[in-house]
Automatic annotation (TrEMBL):
Alphabetic keyword roster: DNA-binding, Transcription, Transcription regulation
Name recorded for this polypeptide: GntR family transcriptional regulator
One example GO MF annotation: DNA-binding transcription factor activity
PANTHER family tied to this protein: GLUCONATE OPERON TRANSCRIPTIONAL REPRESSOR, TRANSCRIPTIONAL REGULATOR, GNTR FAMILY
Alphabetical list of PROSITE patterns matching this protein: HTH_GNTR
CDD domains, per database record: WHTH_GntR
Superkingdom per UniProt: Bacteria
Thylakoid keyword on record: no
SMART domains xrefs: FCD, HTH_GNTR
Species of provenance: Actinomadura barringtoniae
Domain HTH gntR-type: 15-82
């Protein structure tokens, strides 16, 4: 009897540890503690977290499934690199899929969906996007309110597979957006979200799809600019380092 209990508890304990390691790594990646392209070495993480290698690998595989880590052939795991091509592909996928799902949502959504859209927009509209302590980064509260609003708009479609696809794409684009940490003073995000809410609630599918596509296009453009800026800064830093090494050698 004791053996049976032990066998039941062991997998449960491993699963709990894996969940904890996963949550820790996910938060660290989203907060930028691990830089874009940084290696995620299972051995080092296992030692750091005080868990087995199997527990860490399970957590890393889950992160790969969410697009928050890459599995590299013969090189282990790494944080996704911040490349223009990667985020443009994500943006293209979102612009292709989300307006279509929004049309379905407007067609199928009931009164309860309308109420949830209105409530989600109200929460987003009333949540400050920035705080002095966060510098250029969006607050956690605003980021979550932003996600909920966009997801709620699509939930009227009633298709869990499409919503799961949205969830995965959102995580990937959210990671890029957090890394960019650049504000666009000329962009009126509040007005964009208000137009989305109004078009959805008036059941104007054409306008809603058009506004959403434009909204996603502007976001993609901002991330591309950030990627190019960061790449230029990285190249400049590497050049300076190489020149310094050369000067010291001479």
């Amino acid at each position: 009897m004791l053996t049976s209990v032990t066998r039941t508890q062991a997998p449960a304990g491993k699963q709990m540890l894996s969940e904890q390691v996963y949550a820790h790594l996910r938060d660290a990646i989203m907060r930028g503690i691990y830089a874009p392209g940084a290696a995620l070495k299972p051995q080092d993480l296992a030692k750091e977290q005080g868990v087995s290698l199997a527990v860490v690998r399970e957590a890393l595989v889950r992160l790969v499934g969410e697009g928050l880590a890459d599995r590299l052939p013969n090189r282990g795991f790494a944080v996704p690199a911040f490349s223009d091509r990667r985020w443009q592909e994500i943006a293209e996928a979102r612009r292709t899929i989300e307006p279509v799902v929004l049309r379905m949502s407007i067609e199928r959504g009931d009164l309860d969906w309308e109420s949830r859209v209105r409530a989600a927009h109200h929460r987003l509209d009333r949540t400050p996007p920035y705080e002095p302590d966060n510098g250029e980064y969006y607050t956690e509260a605003w980021s979550e309110a932003h996600r909920v609003f966009h997801r709620t708009l699509l939930e009227g479609c009633g298709n869990p597979v499409l919503l799961e696809t949205f969830d995965r794409m959102w995580i990937a684009s959210e990671l890029a957006r957090r890394w960019s940490a650049h504000r666009d003073p000329d962009r009126d995000g509040i007005a964009e979200h208000r137009r989305l809410e109004e078009a959805a609630l008036t059941r104007d599918a054409d306008t809603a799809a058009q506004v959403l596509a434009q909204h996603l296009t502007l976001t993609a453009a901002a991330l591309t600019d950030a990627a190019l800026t960061d790449a230029a800064l990285t190249d400049a830093a590497l050049t300076d380092a190489a020149q310094t090494d050369a000067a010291q050698t001479n």
